[in-house]
Design a protein that fits this description.
Blueprint lengths: L11 H8 L12 E3 L9 E7 L5 H5 L5 H13 L3 E5 L7 H10 L1 H9 L2 E5 L25 H6 L3 H26 L5 E4 L21 H27 L3 E3 L2 H6 L20 H12 L4 H4 L2
Parallel strand pairs: 2-3, 2-4, 4-5, 5-6
Antiparallel strand pairs: 1-3
Helix pairs in contact: 3-10, 4-7, 7-8
């Protein structure tokens, strides 16, 4: 489904608009390439891959995105130029990233030369999931009706759906590792966050649901996102990745917090504060294997 974004099954209309760039700014689908003014053979090569979570202008317009903030940090810390290539694309899913990795020779070459690769993927593959998935939330007339539909998901179908995407993520992370061909490379993945809490829904009807009725759905989604991110991190680390854990940075230590302070009005794409949090997570990753300092 084109541009279907994981909105905790609650803000589909808003998110489709957001992922096509209707957040008040024009969003280019062309990759961001920021060559250093002092580009040289000694430059650090930074590549960003994935979905619109990793396309800063979608959520924060003209603000300085996490990618450029991180590049500036690396330049300051290492006294080396940084060549930044942001190849993330709005609407990308696990399978479309796989296709990019398998068919785009230019992106393959960038990854092969990259010192640091950052990935944001999986958000568009989450609940309400696809009709062919073991778990799929039924279509409803209004967002408020999604709560009982969400609660109809069984533990068995959730387990089977996460297992399906485990295989797909394994293939993506494995392909990136393969393209590095054994050369030193720092690989980082963000995981996904949960934006159901305090979300008004795409049609604004969620406030109609009583706290007593919505609480079980909140608890279910905390469990689903905990399991997804644990799976994601386990698969990624098997291919040499570090997990940056955007979920707990946005949702808090217990995973129950609202992402409102960190996202645009669509409750999906990181705003200026969210960009700063993403950059700070990346700054916490040890990159001495490729920088030497």
């Amino acid at each position: 489904m084109t541009d279907r974004i994981l909105v905790a099954a609650l803000v589909l209309a808003v998110v489709v608009a957001a992922c096509t760039g209707s957040t008040g700014s024009t969003v280019s689908t062309n990759p961001t390439v920021v060559p250093s003014a002092a580009a040289s053979s000694d430059a650090l090569r930074l590549v960003i891959l994935g979905d619109s979570i990793a396309v800063p202008e979608v959520g924060c317009g003209a603000c300085i995105g996490f990618d450029e903030q991180y590049a500036a940090y690396l330049e300051t810390q290492t006294s080396r130029a940084v060549d930044l290539h942001n190849e993330a694309r709005p609407g990308d899913r696990i399978e479309s990233l796989q296709s990019l990795l398998d068919t785009n020779a230019a992106v393959q070459a960038e990854i092969a030369k990259a010192d640091i690769v950052v990935v944001s993927i999986g958000y568009n593959n989450g609940p309400p999931w696809d009709p062919e998935d073991p778990c799929h939330v039924q279509e409803v007339a209004k967002d408020a009706d999604l709560i009982p539909a969400i609660l109809a998901m069984t533990p068995e179908c959730v387990t089977d759906t996460i297992a399906k995407y485990r295989g797909e993520l394994d293939a993506v992370y494995g392909r990136i590792e393969e393209l590095a061909a054994g050369r030193p490379q720092v690989r980082i993945t963000f995981g996904v966050f949960d934006n159901i809490r305090d979300n008004p829904g795409g049609d604004g009807t969620l406030p109609e649901v009583t706290p007593e009725d919505i609480q079980p759905a909140l608890e279910l989604f905390v469990s689903i996102f905990d399991r997804w991110n644990a799976m994601d991190c386990e698969v990624a680390t098997a291919h040499g990745f570090v997990c940056a854990d955007l979920r707990h940075a946005f949702n808090g230590p217990d995973g129950n917090g609202s992402v409102g302070p960190y996202t645009a009005p669509d409750w999906v794409h990181p705003n200026e504060a969210g960009q700063a949090v993403m950059a700070k997570l990346l700054e916490g990753v040890d990159v001495t294997a490729v920088t030497g300092r």
